[in-house]
């Protein structure tokens, strides 16, 4: 009996539990629906690449051009000092024409060309201040020192023409309202009054005093018109007339006086003070004034300097005519 009870108890312990049916959650149930219609979207075809023959060739790489060095305007001889120094180089070229290779645009002009003819636009970049061998023919025909045969008539005519020229430039400077001319008033260089004394002495000696020649009158008229139209160009003549007279005219005049006046010195060739100092003062004023001028104005001064020496050279040749 005890065995039966023990066996029943063991069976009750070992027997597996009754299986239970698992019911899924209602929320997790999947309801079948109708099948969805799927539409296939097609993209437009991508344009095909152009044929290799139609495709443009890629540009060839260009070589980098070397940079040109910056060009600075060339400096004219004497430019660092001033326009008076530049004109001195012009005078040197005219005195030694075979030493210069610079050709001129103004040198070919005749002496009676209209006043105030300005430099061309090319002069600002090129050889605007260049001077042609203006006096080459005159230099070739210039008489040598031993061949000088001055005449009294020719010398008096030269003094008359010189007086007219000095009268003109001194009157312009004294009477003009242009501020550029004011700096040169009462410079001490004036020669008109001195020539008047010399001519008066000749008149007292019974020598006939002629009227100004066509050359002297032409030059005086040119200076008058130039003074009204272009101050830098006129001042070029003003300075170079005195410069030529002091640098060479005095020596020529003294030689002539020894030959035809028995060595008597004329007032035309005398000053109360050192003429070189007077000329230096005028030169410094001109250089200072030219600092406010353009390169074109300076080039015109150089051209007018050549024209001035041309006139003066012709006037000196009257002495031996």
UniProtKB/TrEMBL annotation:
GO terms for molecular function: heme oxygenase (decyclizing) activity. This is Heme oxygenase. GO terms for biological process: heme oxidation; photosynthesis; phytochromobilin biosynthetic process. Residues 136-145 have a biased composition (Acidic residues). Belongs to the heme oxygenase family. Residues 47-77, 98-148 are annotated as: Disordered. SUPFAM superfamilies: Heme oxygenase-like. Its main location: plastid. InterPro entries: Haem_Oase, Haem_Oase-like, Haem_Oase-like_multi-hlx, Haem_Oase_decyc_pln. Residues 1-15 form the signal peptide. One of its GO terms (cellular component) is chloroplast. It is found in: Plastid, Chloroplast. It holds the Pfam family Heme_oxygenase. The keyword Chaperone does not apply.
């Amino acid at each position: 009996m005890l065995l039966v009870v023990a066996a029943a108890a063991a069976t009750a312990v070992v027997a597996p539990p009754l299986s239970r049916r698992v019911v899924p959650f209602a929320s997790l149930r999947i309801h079948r629906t109708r099948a969805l219609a799927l539409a296939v979207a097609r993209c437009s075809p991508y344009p095909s690449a152009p044929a290799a023959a139609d495709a443009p060739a890629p540009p060839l790489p260009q070589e980098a051009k070397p940079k040109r060095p910056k060009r600075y305007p060339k400096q004219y001889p004497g430019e660092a000092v001033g326009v008076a120094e530049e004109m001195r180089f012009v005078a040197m070229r005219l005195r030694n024409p075979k030493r210069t290779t610079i050709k001129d645009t103004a040198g070919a002009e005749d002496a009676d060309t209209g006043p105030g003819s300005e430099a061309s636009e090319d002069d600002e970049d090129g050889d605007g201040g260049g001077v042609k061998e203006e006096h080459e023919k005159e230099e070739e025909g210039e008489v040598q020192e031993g061949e000088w045969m001055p005449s009294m008539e020719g010398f008096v005519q030269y003094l008359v023409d010189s007086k007219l020229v000095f009268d003109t430039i001194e009157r312009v400077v004294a009477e003009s309202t242009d501020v550029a001319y004011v700096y040169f008033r009462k410079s001490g260089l004036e020669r008109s009054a001195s020539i008047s004394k010399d001519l008066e002495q000749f008149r007292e000696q019974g020598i006939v005093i002629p009227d100004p020649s066509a050359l002297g009158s032409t030059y005086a008229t040119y200076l008058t018109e130039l003074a009204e139209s272009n101050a830098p160009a006129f001042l070029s003549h003003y300075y170079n007339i005195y410069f030529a007279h002091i640098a060479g005219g005095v020596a020529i005049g003294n030689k002539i006086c020894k030959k035809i006046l028995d060595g008597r010195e004329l007032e035309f060739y005398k000053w109360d003070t050192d003429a070189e100092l007077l000329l230096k003062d005028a030169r410094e004023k001109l250089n200072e004034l030219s600092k406010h001028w353009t390169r074109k104005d300076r080039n015109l001064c150089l051209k007018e300097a050549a024209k001035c020496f041309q006139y003066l050279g012709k006037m000196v040749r009257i002495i031996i005519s």
